[in-house]
Protein 1
Amino acid sequence: MAAQRKAVALISGGLDSMLAARMMLDQGIHVEGITFFTGFCTDGLHHMSGVYRDNTPTRNHAFWVAEQLGIEHHIINIVDEYKDIVLNPKHGYGANLNPCLDCKIFMVGKAQEWIREHGFDFIVTGEVIGQRPKSQRKETMPIIARESGADDLLLRPLSALNLPPTLPEREGWVDRDKLLGLSGRSRKPQMALAAQYGITEYAQPAGGCCVLTDENYTHKLQDFWTHRGKRDYEFDDILLLNMGRHLRPNNRFKLIVSREESETRYMEGYRKSFHHIKTVSHPGPITLIDGDDLTPDDWKLAAAVTARFSKGRDAAEVEVRMVPKGGEAELIRITPLKPEEVLKSWYL
Ligand code: SF4
């Protein structure tokens, strides 16, 4: 009897990769899932930090998909290596700072290393030709296969009939007749296939949780680079860009004001790396101050903004503790800003 073939499926948490993996399981392939932790996926960041909007835990879609499929799931941290993809994408960016084509090439390349090290036979992705304008086009499919080094060990079960047969198909490990020839942006065929499999719950529209595709996040990242004077980041930087309200009242400093309890707790871990302000007389946020050359008026403004977002927002005065990085704390009483005094133009 022929040995059971083994494939690794790139699991994004969306429906397409779930279906692709499921199709392979149906063909008797041993499938395990891989999800890469880039530092830019909100599901991964929530899971890692324990911080959720409105303090309401949300599903980690990739974990959930793997659980539904009943497959082993591997999370691979690529935060450091991924930096070069974000900073210097050979194929450029999409609509925002999303280097999708380079990202896919990199991830498939990492999967290729993984299958070599773990004795697996091929790689499966949920890519569909024409689904995404930048990275999922007919022309980009061979580029991903070639530049990742995976070549014909990369199988896209949902679009396979639109592509040349891969090694798993030619060798008969996978029955090509049972693969699909989907193309285009419509989600209807995937939804129909999900219904056939009895899959009724899945992330909409495709499970994308990557903040690099988000205009607002891109704006914050660009602002961060501009004020640091270089295009670079550490993991903590990109994590904080995804947390709190970001306000830049002037070029000397930016405020990161926590929005809820879990953020406040988490951001307190950064007290030693930033100047910070905390309300004392009323429950309220922690504000991290990114900037070193603050004037006394800047400190007062930062304190008044912090008070504005505290439970003392309507009080005549709020007591706050202002703590310079590595310095002595100072307690002051401050009048909270009125809502209209927190200018829209400050928000990043
Ligand atoms: S959306 Fe983000 S994770 Fe997905 S391919 Fe693009 S850059 Fe990569």
Protein 2
Amino acid sequence: MEPALIAVDIDGVLNPYNMSRSRGQKLGYRPSKRLRQERMMRTFWNRTHGAELRRLSREYDAELVWATYWNGLANEYARLEVGLPELPVVELDLTTLTTDWKYPTMLAYAAGRPLVWFDDEHVDHGRGRDEFLAARTEPTALIDVPPVEGLGEPQIAAAERFLGLL
Ligand SMILES: [Mg+2]
């Protein structure tokens, strides 16, 4: 089988929602000065995420890819905040935000490969999720990330369990 893909969303995964400076400090997140200055965005990032994702990719011979509506901006900004190399981008059309979301694009992109997918919105698209899983013939783990906390140890552990069984 082809090497597994590890698809990574940004908002609600690497950049949690409703983060504050004090809560961020407790959880290991720092605000991005660059995104604030250049794009007027208030974002918080945790460098542990980059290290953990790189480790998963290395230990399980899996390929990290971006699956975020940030598209190319993920490589321009987000990767530097968490410490990741440039990654392939699953290009998402913004119009799918209100229709089938990321599912059809990901179905085509990940065809033939096992897939681990970290996202906070799998659950907001219930029917799409069921159809996606029914259409996939390869091992698939949709890993739900709590959007206010962001990617954490339980989700990384779930990914490891899945990748370890391939
Ligand atoms: Mg998200």
Protein 3
Amino acid sequence: MKISAIVAMDSQNGIGVNNQLPWHLPNDLKFFKSVTMGKPIVMGRKTYESLGRPLPGRLNVVISSQQVAAPESVVVLKSIEAALAYVAQQGTEEVFIIGGGQIFAATLPILNTLYITEVHTTVAADIFFPEISMEDWSLDWEEAHPTDEEHQFAYTFKKYLRK
Ligand SMILES: NC(=O)c1ccc[n+]([C@@H]2O[C@H](COP(=O)([O-])OP(=O)(O)OC[C@H]3O[C@@H](n4cnc5c(N)ncnc54)[C@H](OP(=O)(O)O)[C@@H]3O)[C@@H](O)[C@H]2O)c1
């Protein structure tokens, strides 16, 4: 099973503030949807609460040490290992780690593929993606987008494969 992560981060690896995304970038949400659709997504309890609902068309797996109030379709498990074992049992070819900071920090060493949206700004973030050793990764694809009426910041989609 391929383990992939998808994240949008600023120039200082900032990914969140006040349990929300620090920006509104509709094209990044569309990109996230197109990349993850049909695949299981694994997230921490805080990210699930931030989303406020399961994301449709994907098996939603939430990691928490507690009971989480969630619809029956959402699978809540007590560890990252349990979450990955569960999705592997479903015959999954690729699972997406979708955050947040705690879950990215714990899974970075085992990721095969990394989709990063670089947001070309620095926000006052309170949650960060862990430091990435770029020598471990090779850039497979990238696509740059300028600011426009809907996008306050320029951003670049990048796909990295572990060397
Ligand atoms: N920019 C992006 O691409 C992106 C993507 C996703 C999220 N975010 C942002 O990231 C922020 C949330 O990240 P976060 O780091 O605060 O929280 P998080 O990683 O989403 O969730 C943390 C929670 O997950 C559970 N957890 C984590 N590790 C665990 C383990 N090993 N075993 C059992 N449970 C574990 C715990 O839940 P319990 O406390 O219930 O035990 C913990 O409190 C938000 O601001 C969100 O908007 C940004």
